[in-house]
Amino acid sequence: MKIIHTIAELRAWRKTVGTVAFVPTMGSLHAGHMSLIHAAKAAAEHTVVSIFVNRLQFGQGEDFDRYPRTLENDAALIAEQGGVDVIFAPDEKELYPNVIQQYQVTPPAIAEELCGAFRPGHFRGVATVVTKLFNIVEADIACFGKKDFQQLFVIQSMVKDLNMNIQILPVDTGRAEDGLALSSRNAFLTADQRNEAPRLYHHLSRMKAAIEAGDRDYSKLAVQAVTDLRVRGWHDIDYVDTRNAETLKAASNTDHKLVILIAARIGSTRLIDNIEVNLD
Ligand code: PAF
Q1: Could you say which residues bind ATP here (predicted)?
Q2: Residue range 184-271 in CATH 3.30.1300.10
Q3: How far apart (Å, rounded) are the C-alpha atoms in residues 158 and 132?
Q4: H or E segment at 25?
Q5: Whose CA is nearest to atom 9 of ligand 1?
Q6: pLDDT, tens digit, 9 for 90 and up, residues 30-57
Q7: Residues sharing a CB contact under 8 Å with residue 75, sequence separation 6 or more, in sequence order
């Protein structure tokens, strides 16, 4: 396994190999990333994992500075799993040689809803860095986790809209035994917060069961979840929202493919999760 830090070296390597599956990450890898890597290894002859904490997708006052940077650990974890050809770990100057990235990819208005409403510019930062990485790695396939459902939606629609020559492979959310979605931000939780954190998934599961049983009063179900979360010390509950899973627009009573999404803070940590509901 090579660790490559420059675009030139990555491009030189890329010219020498066949099909490539790509897993873009911001590092601080956990078992959730390992399932993305596992899916990538099965999808192409070679696998590239990028590790880059992308300043452009963090808003002011967000956790860019405290975001864990653990390249050595990450490389050891990847080596242990085996089968990855390249870790691409550019520094900021390599990816953003201009102080301001002059050309940026602006996603459509749906990216200003849900997480986008609370993190202005976030998905433009994601779409821009992912486009740059796609242009550098020139992979055949890229794997994205369903935990970041709106991010996956933005990337899929960007690839389609801009005719990018890459296939997006969605990968199911990895979960701890108690249901908590695996996330690098879980590392910030205290022991008590960690015990409480699976409640997001419990509420999603309860809402899904209610909808499957015929309850289509999405707002009432959301209010019930929000009320309970508040009582239990959650705050800044950004949204509990049921959407059409294919368009991410507000769900109607006749939609069959739904996704329930949630974002809330416990202590100083913002967690997100979602669950799909298929009524076919
Ligand atoms: O999901 C992430 O870790 C990041 O948003 C990504 C896709 C690596 C872009 O920085």
Answers
A1: 26-33, 145-148, 174, 182-185
A2: yes
A3: 13
A4: strand 20-25
A5: 126
A6: 999 999 999 999 999 999 999 999 999 9
A7: 1, 3, 87
CA distance 200 to 262: 7
2-171 falls under which CATH superfamily? HUPs (3.40.50.620)
Name the residue with the closest Cα to ligand 1, atom 8. 25
CB distance 12 to 86 below 8 Å: no
Domain ranges (residues) in the chain: 2-171, 184-271
Report, as an integer, the average pLDDT of 211-229: 98
Q: Which residue has the tokens 């500075």?
A: 65
Q: Which residues line ligand 1 (CB under 6 A)?
A: 24-26, 54, 57, 126, 129-130, 148, 151
| CA distance linking residue 230 with residue 242, whole number of Å | 19
CB 244 within 8 A of CB 252: yes
Active site residue 235: no
Which residue, judged by its Cα, is nearest atom 1 of ligand 1? 25
Pair of tokens at residue 30: 């956990």
Question: Ligand 1: distance of its center to the CA of 12 in Å?
Answer: 24
CB atoms within 10 A of CB 136: 21
Question: pTM here?
Answer: 0.96
